[in-house]
Hints:
Strand content: 5-15%
CATH topology of the largest domain: Dehydroquinate synthase-like, alpha domain
CATH superfamily of the largest domain: Dehydroquinate synthase-like - alpha domain
Bound molecules: nicotinamide-adenine-dinucleotide, zinc ion
Radius of gyration: 20 Å
Largest sheet: 6 strands, parallel
Number of domains: 2
Number of helices: 14
Strand order of the largest sheet: 1-9-6-4-2-3
Distance between the termini: 37 Å
Shape: globular
Helix content: 40-55%
Low-confidence stretches: none
Structural class: alpha/beta
Amino acid sequence: MKFRNFKMVGYVVYGRGCFGQLDEIIAPHRKDGKPMIFLVDHFFNGKPLVERVPVRGNDTIIFADVTYEPKTTYVDQLAQQLKDEFGTVSGVIGIGGGSTMDLAKAVSLMMNNPGSSADYQGWDLVKFPGVYKAGIPTLSGTGAEVSRTTVLTGPTKKLGMNSDFTPFDQIVLDPELTANAPANQRFYTGMDCYIHCIESLEGTYLNEFSKSYGAKALELCREVFVKSNEWNSDCDDKLMMASYAGGMSIAYSQVGVAHAVSYGLSYLLGTKHGIGNCIVMDHLEEYYPEGVKEFKYMVEKNNIDIPKGICKNLSDGDFEKMMNVSLGMKPLWENALGKDWEKIMTREKLRALYEKL
Ligand code: NAD
Ligand code: ZN
């Protein structure tokens, strides 16, 4: 048994309004004449948050287009643009949801690694540390703020740049930034955390480290989506910590069936991560009976729409593609179903599951 020796984020600041400390926090990381790049979710273009970004000298704000989840081509384009304009930069600060944070991590890495980000999709392929990078979530749930990966869609696969160089040097957890997220989006991203917890807690990779964080994250998700009758600032505080703890839980375990199946949807249909997980979770009674029951309750209680019938008109070839992507996620299946997972999750069984979605 080899125990994972994992790299964590460097610094963490948490609290309502802590975004106001950003200028002071990044000051020691400014290098002579080299700008800080603020990669800001395009949702905030023209919104008051932009006025609060501590821009100095030749610092630059780039609005991240997250209409689609991050692609390797977009990462390469952003990194090239920065290299052409500045040679190098002091750092990359990602302000937004999981997509923007992943882009920031990947662009930081690509400032110092040759070739295309697609070359580094996999485990421990990144050769050199990136430039200084900070993550500031404006949605809670993905755990991207603490993880050692950045999920990218490349020419041949949807896979992260998993490496010890990937975690942020700094994260700024300010629940005020999530205050105005629309209820559906907040739910889909929040459920990413809930589903991480269920998959981790019901998985075979579980140990006490994962369990401790997973149990806390699950409790916080329940307070927010099961017990609370209306959304308030406490909910924002709690969900942000749930995301953090959920991410820490995954550091020592793995996600499971919902994620493995949802990756196939996202690869073929471009279905977004949060909503895709929800679409799949809705049909996983066989694997996570308690979790799915509670999930359905939360959907109803929070008045959320979960799309149905998204695989209705797909061809055999389409199903094959989704199944190939999904079954390629070996560690997820092994965590969910054990070493003999291939005997349990046959292609026929997976096809039948996709047909239900
Ligand atoms: P997202 O970042 O894709 O954003 C979803 C939508 O919400 C976008 O339209 C965005 O503009 C908008 N948005 C962001 N903040 C907002 C706010 N405060 N108010 C209103 N709208 C806002 O959503 P997400 O669910 O946070 O992230 C999903 C992404 O995270 C996927 O690309 C997924 O692959 C990735 N992910 C990464 C990890 C990891 O460990 N690196 C883990 C899970 C998911
Ligand atoms: Zn997830």
